[in-house]
Structures are given as C-alpha cells and as structure tokens.
Amino acid sequence: MQIELMHQPGNTAAKIILAENEICTTEAGAMIATSNNMDVTTTTHKKQSRGILKAAKRLLSGESFFINHFEPKGGPGELWLGANLAGDMMTYDLDNESLIVQGGSFVACEHQVEIDLGWQGFKSLFSGESIFWLNLKGNGKVLLNSFGAIYPIEVDGEMIVDSGHIVAFNETLDFSITKAGKSWLHSFLGGEGLVCKFEGKGTVWCQSHNPGSFGSSLTSGLKPRKA
Fold first, then answer.
1. Cα Rg for the chain, rounded, in angstroms?
2. 10-37 tens-digit pLDDT
3. How far is CA 89 from the centre of its chain?
C-alpha cells in the first residue's frame, strides 16, 4: 500500500495506491473517490470475519460501528481519503508494536493491522476525553488525521500535554492526569484545567487545534434563528 499526502497541512487528503487484491481498511465515510475497479466491503471487523464486540468497542472510542475494506480487482487501484475536520494527516509504520490513537483520529490502515480498544482508565474521563482509545497493533501502515497541523513531541522523561490536542502516542509511554498550574485554582482560571502528564520514552503526536474547544466556541457564538 502506497500513501501520498496531498495539500498539507491545512486541507490534507490521502491518495492511496493498492496492488491487485491488496486490502485497505478505512473508517466509514472517509472515502473521497476511488477507481472503478475497486471492490468495497463493509463489515464490523476484518473482511470475511465477525466482530460485533470489537465494533461496539470502537463506538465507545468515538469511531464508527462499521469499517470499509477496499480491494482492487483486475489490476492496481486508486483510493482517495479525507477527514471530517480540516487539518493534516500522518502515516505511521507499525513494526510489531502498538499505537494508542485518540477517538476520531483513525482514518485507515493495512488490512493486517489489528484494531482494538485501548483502556486508559477513568483518568481519561476526568480529563474531559473518552476513557476508551483505539489500540492499533501489529505490523503495517496506519493513516491518521488531525484538526489543524500535526507534529510530534519527543518524550524522554516527562512532558505535559493538553488532552484535547493529543492525536496518538506510543504505548511505551504512561500518562496520568494532573493540574496545569501550581494550584487547582490557577489551572482552571488559566483555562487549562486538567492535562496529561506523559512519562517514559516515546512520541506523542499533537494537533494544533482542540476539537472540543472549537465546538464550544461555535455553539456559544451562534445566534438564535429569527422567526
């Protein structure tokens, strides 16, 4: 599977080239366009396998119940994918490892990658985020999206990150919920509140915009419709 990212970083789309009978698994609704020799199968898990429980788990993490599998027939095929919010995309090559992904950031992966649920504990709930994140594991290419620009932050020791800006992180990192300022009062008055403290060695991929804050600003700014 070959992935080319176009129009970065503000309005990124992914152009994917698949060899004949090669399968790309995508989030439902991610397709922009595809060549006419592409076979599309919609399932709750792997192609030609059942996975109702795994699909239900994905709903808890903010992803869709169904996933699509694109497979070109009679030759190579081309697939274009996009995201719900304007921003960037990134690729990551799993090498017998796990990548924890924030709900809503998963776009696509090679078919052999296992999509499971990552339990982050109730500490995530108190940070304002989901307590369930996706756990992508195994070997193969992964495609993720962000709201705004996406960039890596290398952690070797400790790093504080706002929870709404997290896209993904290596499973080698542990995290805990803590206050942003010296006191709880300063944390909330400063608008940061609770943040994630990562410990260990690995990478956290962050997005420049916070979807939750963006949604809140839109809602508060909308005027009532006049009759």
1. 19
2. 899 999 999 999 999 999 889 999 999 9
3. 9
Q: Domains of the chain by range and CATH?
A: 2-217 (3.60.160.10)
Q: What is the DSSP letter of 149?
A: -
pLDDT of residue 224: 53
* Half-sphere exposure in the Cβ direction for 29 (13 Å, CA): 9
* Omega cis (within 30) before 224: no
Indicate the SS3 state at residue 215.
helix
Under DSSP, the state recorded for 58 is H
Expressed in angstroms, the distance from the first to the final Cα of the chain is: 53
Taking 3-state DSSP, the helix, strand and coil percentages for the chain, each rounded to the nearest 5, stand at: 15, 50, 35
The DSSP element (H or E) to which 150 belongs, if any, is strand 150-161
| Angstrom distance (rounded) from CA 113 to CA 173 | 21
Q: Are 52 and 9 in contact, with CB atoms under 8 Å apart?
A: no
Three-state secondary-structure class, residue 123:
helix
The neighbouring-strand residues paired with 92 are: 142
Q: What is the mean pLDDT of residues 99-104?
A: 86
| pTM given for the model | 0.79
Residues in contact with 121: Cβ distance below 8 Å, sequence separation at least 6, in sequence order: 131
Residue type, 215: G
- For residue 163 the two structure tokens come to 């929870």
Token look-up 């719900």 returns 84
